[in-house]
Structure prediction request, 672 residues.
Amino acid sequence: MVVPESQEKMYYPPDDLKGDAHVPDFNSYLALYRKSLENPEAFWKEIADEFSWKKPATGPMLQYNFDVTKGNIYVKCMEGAKTNMCYNVLDRLVKERNLGEKVAYYWEGNSPDHHMAITYRQLLSQVCRCANVLKQMGVKKGDRVSIYLPMIPELVYTMLACARIGAVHCIVFAGFSSESLCERMVDAQSSVLVTADGVYRGEKLINLKQIADEALEKCREKASSSVTKCLVIKHHALRTKSGAACNKLQTPWDSDCDVWWDEVMRDSPEECEPEWLDAEDPLFILHTSGSTGKPKGVLHTVAGYLLYTSLTFKYVFDHHHDDVYWCTADIGWITGHSYITYGPLANGATSVLFEGIPVHPHVGRFWEIIEKYKVTKFYTAPTAIRLLMKYGREPLQKYDLSSLRILGTVGEPINPEAWQWYHEVVGQGRCPVVDTFWQTETGGHVLTPLPAATPLKPGSATFPFFGVEPTILNEHGEELEGEGEGYLVFRRPWPGIMRTVYRNHERFENTYFKKFPGFYLTGDGCRRDKDGYYWITGRIDDMLNVSGHLMSTAEVEAALTEHPAVAEAAVVSRPHKVKGECLYCFVTLKDSREFNHKLVEEVKRLVREKIGPIATPDFIQNAPALPKTRSGKIMRRILRQIARNEKDLGDLSALADPKVVEELFSQRCEAA
Ligand code: WT7
Prediction:
């Protein structure tokens, strides 16, 4: 493969960043990187020494088996140590570092009229009160707490309160449907659900409590409800009300189960002794899509995740104490867990916590917020950049963006046009763009530039972070030397890697370790160029990446086939200007059912209701038959090519009935 001319231009770190940078040049990166692989014990020990341990470790910094042929897969970090995550990210800073009065979060509401600053001391006090509330509700160490909240301060309070008492938080993105919420609560066997009355996303009022109730009802129908209490934050009623008639919201209430947050928080004491946990005790479960359609409960543990998120945050954003950092992700995704909550707090950072969306009340909202808080480090997704690019330079020119020093992206490969625009227009050519590749499973960045050290190539996540040893394998599991393209895998763990799929260790081993014994399989394709730069080429399994959100073809297909007229469905991705990829669905209808506009709308609505708005299909195509092999396997490669209008289909000899292809081409959807 030939690298296009424009991608080969290198961008060198700006000099003004080097003065006080943690890793000031490429040789320092290489030296530290070598140390991290050659002497991981010493490398991670030094990082661990910055944190508080109730008891020191008795085992090594890292112990593991990555080879299924040699026994069970496991990773352990600092066995024997006792600590508490919440203590490390709050008490340690307030009590040992004197950072009590420093702002932890500038909360910025959906409406620019709603905002507040929260200091570390205030955060600690709210977290302790919430921890006591949870204890009062019967939550104990090891219990799971499901959290279904918008981006409000209480979301951070609740997750840290869980961490403080040793409960395992299981956050569900508040854009997910009641069905998705139910599925995740059942899988986690949570005893408490925390939600809010309602929230505005842009102009749209969402009745969260009602969705939460529907989810609880569905759990009861499945006779698998473990949730006994629902803690409800009065967010809409208290904070977003402006007296307009359109603000009316009915909050359904069940006094046996539901508890108002403000009522129980009011009298809750501010003192709460942290629960001292084992280094390998669970910290949280976060579900991510799995190729079978059933989400996987990715489990992260206390000590390793603390070390890894705090170190990646410090180095990748070259954090300094006067920074104002803003990550636009939602805490419902791993990006928010690692780089809004834990990583920044562990470093005593000041962050912006934003409830809204990029285009409300106007398309310059991001730039307005950067100016307002003098943001120095800004972290967002390619899909947001592509969306904002559409409005041109004018919305940015109204604001002063001179505070910015480092820009970051995450979630999907960034195309060179979006990279250039981010670098030139947002960063005014001054700011390095750190393209961070990682996954829910990896806990933190694994391939990433360091802003003052790494020369950048637009579209490349460049090199591995400390402790990470990537390699590229071909189909036969042979390692590629030098240039080449294949499966991206990792040869050893780093402290922040997931430990298991909750209650399904077998699935963990099968998904990530079975195909190539000795390696963790990412599921992504990757190319290494002649200079050793890594380029992620996208998923090579049955996963789709829509606006940086992973979903499986199987889960969308399952939703489609729930429609009474649909006999069979197959879903593939098609490139989309803003979303990166979008969903293109082929549906085979049952006999005598007619394919028409009404059906298309019904089917789209169904997927939206089953999974959530992020999974709304862009295209529904009628498929009188699907291209299958003689053994009945759907040939997705062909469907992908039809969706993309690629006429050269190559070898079709595996197809049971090659005529199907022509028929499908004739009924292709051009536009959404
Ligand atoms: C998948 C993981 C990591 C937080 C957000 C997504 C894709 C992620 C990049 C990047 C190219 C990327 C991969 C990965 N991805 N970052 N910088 N360049 N691709 O977390 O939902 O677990 O998704 O997102 O395909 O496997 P996730």
In short: The pocket of WT7 is lined by residues 288, 333-335, 410-413, 435-440, 461, 522-524, 536, 539, 545, 548, 550 (CB under 6 Å). The chain is about 30% helix and 20% strand.
